[in-house]
Design a protein that fits this description.
heterodimer, A: alpha/beta, five-stranded mixed beta sheet, 4 helices, 5 strands, about 35% helix, about 30% strand, globular, B: alpha/beta, FAD/NAD(P)-binding domain, 2 domains, 8 helices
Chain lengths: ~100, ~300
């Protein structure tokens, strides 16, 4: 399951050992294509917590992490961003990217 | 409705792939310029195409057209801006909406325009390709729109609704209008051009972009005759590099990495023609189109068995 981030609140992300945060918006085509891919990955990757942040509703977070293009994906480990990527990617590519950042 | 195969490109590779797939009774959609790739039509004479000695480019294109028609293959004349690999199928974003297909054959040729220096380094940090996606990050800020195609004008106007200042650099030249086709872009700045939109805001700049620079974020567009300080740069192209058209596609230099079966690192995505590298030859492209179609048919069979 992909959990929604509300009110710029990252506490659940920070409490997760390894988390993926997807900044997106409903009117962004590539974001909408990425959403089901992340949903599937969240079912397959039990060790990773998946989150989605509406970039506009959470503008404070978007600015804090320098998001200027969506979809933007961040991997957080122990509360700190360790890697980021921009744009749609196929499932296997995202999976590989997450795995390489879990070690 | 989901097609079995979407073939993108109407050069020798795409046409050949479509013919082979159709003969194998596959449900296909062939997407590209309806009058065939301009690269065929521009050829003066082709010396080495077996069975058709000294045929002209126009002659070859017309022969393709005739064969496609006899097989009942229609060309869908639309522009594909993005191909999403969704796992067991593909979603194609086109100018006329979304198209779904189980497999994709890319026969889109080579892209002559290289990225601007600095462009690749600043993707997501000031460089964007989608105004509708990213306009909100530039509310009350200054942006530049580099337009390699006419569609950029709409993007510039869209940004002008929210951004404080929009510089618009149309860089499609006179030749582009004359031939009316992709790839004729000559890189010259357009003179005496204005945007007659609802918003007066976009300021048209007749200059040629040379480089994108900045610190952590892109903040400067360096042009031939001056620089522009900006918060963001939107680049709108007609011809899209293969790995930007299909995110995640593995490249080798300017071409797509492939093997003798014409497969790629993305399952269900096959390639043929100039996109695979040199030699850029019509007959090689046609041969690869045949192989790509047969490999795709094999892939579809394994996909069905797996389900």
């Amino acid at each position: 399951m992909v959990k929604k981030i509300k009110n710029n609140d990252l506490s659940e992300v920070k409490a997760s050992g390894c988390a993926l945060v997807d900044f997106s918006a409903t009117w962004c085509g590539p974001c909408n294509m990425l959403a089901p891919v992340l949903e599937e990955l969240s079912e397959e990757m039990g060790d990773v917590a998946f989150f989605n942040a509406d970039a506009e509703a959470n503008m404070e977070l978007s600015s804090k992490y320098g998001v200027t293009s969506i979809p933007a994906l961040f991997i957080f480990r122990d509360g700190h961003p360790v890697s980021q990527t921009v744009g749609f990617q196929p499932k296997e590519v995202i999976k590989g990217w997450i795995e390489s950042n879990m070690k | 409705m989901r097609y079995d195969i979407a073939v993108i490109g109407t050069g020798p590779a795409g046409v050949s792939a479509a013919i082979t797939a159709k003969v194998r009774n596959i449900n296909i959609i062939l997407i590209g310029p309806g009058a065939m790739s301009w690269k065929i039509r521009k050829a003066h004479v082709i010396k080495n195409y077996p069975g058709l000695p000294d045929i002209s480019g126009d002659g070859l294109a017309d022969a393709y057209d005739k064969q496609l028609k006899s097989l009942g293959i229609e060309i869908t004349d639309t522009k594909v801006s993005m191909v999403y690999s969704m796992g067991s199928y593909f979603s194609l974003q086109t100018s006329d909406g979304m198209i779904e297909a189980s497999a994709v054959i890319l026969a889109t040729g080579v892209v002559s325009e290289a990225s601007l220096p600095g462009e690749d380094d600043y993707v997501g940090r000031g460089v964007s390709y989608c105004a509708t996606c990213d306009a909100l990050f530039y509310k009350d800020k200054t942006v530049a729109v580099i337009g390699y195609s006419k569609e950029a004008e709409a993007e510039a106007e869209f940004l002008a609704e929210t951004s404080e200042k929009v510089y618009y650099l149309p860089v499609f030249g006179k030749e582009y209008k004359e031939c009316g086709i992709d790839g004729c872009i000559d890189g010259h700045a357009v003179q005496n051009y204005s945007v007659s939109g609802k918003y007066q805001n976009p300021e048209v700049i007749s200059d040629i972009p040379k480089e994108i620079t900045g610190g952590l974020k892109a903040d400067t567009l360096v042009c031939e005759h001056g620089i522009k300080k900006v918060d963001g740069i939107f680049i709108i192209r007609d011809n899209i590099a293969a790995d930007r058209l299909v995110p995640g596609l593995q490249m080798n230099g300017g071409h797509v990495s492939t093997d003798l079966s014409m497969s790629t690192n993305i399952k269900g995505c096959f390639v043929c023609g100039d996109i695979t590298g040199t030699p850029y030859q019509y007959i090689k492209a046609a041969g690869q189109g045949n192989v790509a179609a047969l490999s795709t048919v094999d892939y579809l069979n394994t996909l069905r068995k797996g389900m």
